[in-house]
Amino acid sequence: MAQPPNGRGYYVKMKLLHKHGRPHLQDKNCFYRYYKWLLWLSLSLYFFTSYLISNNHVKPPSQNNTTTHVSRALIQSNHTTPPHALSTLGSFKYLKVFVYDLPPKYNTDWLSNERCSKHLFASEVAIHRALLTSEVRTFDPYEADFFFVPVYVSCNFSTVNGFPAIGHARSLIASAVNLISSEYPFWNRSRGSDHVFVASHDFGSCFHTLEDVAVADGVPEIMRNSIVLQTFGVVHDHPCQKVEHVVIPPYVSPESLQDTIQNFPLNGRRDIWVFFRGKMEVHPKNVSGRFYSKKVRTEIWRKFNGDRRFYLQRHRFAGYQSEIARSVFCLCPLGWAPWSPRLVESVALGCVPVVIADGIRLPFLSAVKWSEISVTVAEKDVGRLAEILERVEATNLSSIQRKLWDPATRRALLFNSQVQEGDATWHVLRALSEKLDRSYRSSRVSRQLNLDT
Ligand SMILES: *[C@@H]1O[C@H](CO)[C@@H](O)[C@H](O)[C@H]1NC(C)=O
Ligand SMILES: *[C@@H]1O[C@H](CO)[C@@H](O)[C@H](O)[C@H]1NC(C)=O
Ligand SMILES: *[C@@H]1O[C@H](CO)[C@@H](O)[C@H](O)[C@H]1NC(C)=O
Ligand SMILES: *[C@@H]1O[C@H](CO)[C@@H](O)[C@H](O)[C@H]1NC(C)=O
Ligand SMILES: *[C@@H]1O[C@H](CO)[C@@H](O)[C@H](O)[C@H]1NC(C)=O
Ligand SMILES: *[C@@H]1O[C@H](CO)[C@@H](O)[C@H](O)[C@H]1NC(C)=O
Ligand SMILES: *[C@@H]1O[C@H](CO)[C@@H](O)[C@H](O)[C@H]1NC(C)=O
């Protein structure tokens, strides 16, 4: 029997088979008739339930407290695609996001420095921009499922080292929350649980770049109920992810990648076997326990700097993207935090990422099959890197590359200035649409569904 187009029909059939027991195989004719009847019945049931389900959206909830959202969630709980509230056209029919219009000191003032919208933490800017023109945006906060609070905290670049100083982040966010909670009723009614923030830097929602301080400070009290979009993510318990969060990729400008790809096509010549460019301290110091993470890089340097197949560079170079595009394997070892923009750049430029960061939680697991497009090496095995990569090259490199070069994979990690189906902001919206149970509106009986098709 052909596999029905989705799990719904399959489920119905399985249930039927179960109910009636297995058909007797001795009587072929009877079996055939029974089988045909069963097929007919399951097909009609399938179309009937599909009809019911699709019409469920149109009918107002018959009972006070049974919200359509809940019933839809139950019916579709076994569906991977399409996810909740996601129509087949790839748009988010039922999702509504209200974007607070905050005074410019919270966001756009920072754009006077043009690095603000381009550097690796710029997803806070990119997501805001994309939402402003997105079809999910609503201007009526009463019909919103989620409330986006656009505060840019990563653009106060230090004049000394060029890194963003985020010491002001907590007070800036607190001030923004104070403003919205006094001017609008929405924060208070949900205690912020349907409000969305971006925290795109190291240890995101803890707002400190040193892990021990970040851990000691924890997530600011005011944000603890909210949804935080953050680059930081580990699979184990961590105080900086004790908040509802969505792991997002770091920001890399799609335009710069496009320029690189034009000169270095994905399937072009890759004359570098293993590439890494970045800080590798020869004598790492133990600064508040950060020692350990840098140690991995130091070990790579010590062990493989003499190996001609490894192209390891310790200094900044503006043209490094072309080096990635010329490489087969790109090392993505942890630095101060487990993640780095290398991961996105490697995927976007078709270089197989070699993830060396124990316990890292990667973004958009449902869209990006990380285990099929990257190589993971445990931190303790870093000394065996050459051996491990030789084996991958000999066995499954071409299948990894084929999946890696799939445009859908590469698109999922990039933020565009307008939401494009399948891009990073789109996946953020998809993640939000799976959290509709946090939506005050969706949990109300009086929820008005958007009925136009
Ligand atoms: C909800 O139910 C109550 C009583 O069961 C009824 O009085 C009320 O009008 C209902 N509200 C809506 C919005 O249907
Ligand atoms: C609806 O839910 C409220 C609590 O959420 C409950 O008090 C009320 O009895 C429920 N009404 C119906 C009609 O189930
Ligand atoms: C989803 O389907 C799988 C089999 O396809 C089944 O094992 C699982 O229990 C189902 N889950 C739910 C929530 O129905
Ligand atoms: C920016 O960071 C510096 C520390 O590097 C701090 O002194 C200054 O107050 C911050 N600026 C704002 C506007 O928060
Ligand atoms: C929300 O709660 C805060 C603190 O309890 C209060 O100061 C503020 O006025 C409330 N906002 C609204 C709109 O009622
Ligand atoms: C590194 O520093 C941390 C915190 O300062 C300390 O707990 C740890 O023992 C140090 N490790 C080594 C190897 O010196
Ligand atoms: C490559 O092959 C090895 C075994 O030969 C397997 O363990 C590994 O998961 C494969 N990797 C990918 C990304 O397919």
UniProtKB/TrEMBL annotation:
UniProt keyword Plastid present: no
GO biological process, one term: glucuronoxylan biosynthetic process
Annotated Exostosin GT47 domain residues: 95-391
InterPro entries: Exostosin, Exostosin_GT47
Membrane topology qualifier: Single-pass type II membrane protein
Membrane-spanning segments: 34-53
Main localization category: Golgi
UniProt GO MF annotations: glycosyltransferase activity
Keyword tags: Glycosyltransferase, Golgi apparatus, Membrane, Signal-anchor, Transferase, Transmembrane, Transmembrane helix
Cellular location(s): Golgi apparatus membrane
Record's GO cellular component terms: Golgi membrane
Family: Belongs to the glycosyltransferase 47 family.
Protein name: Exostosin GT47 domain-containing protein
Organism: Psophocarpus tetragonolobus
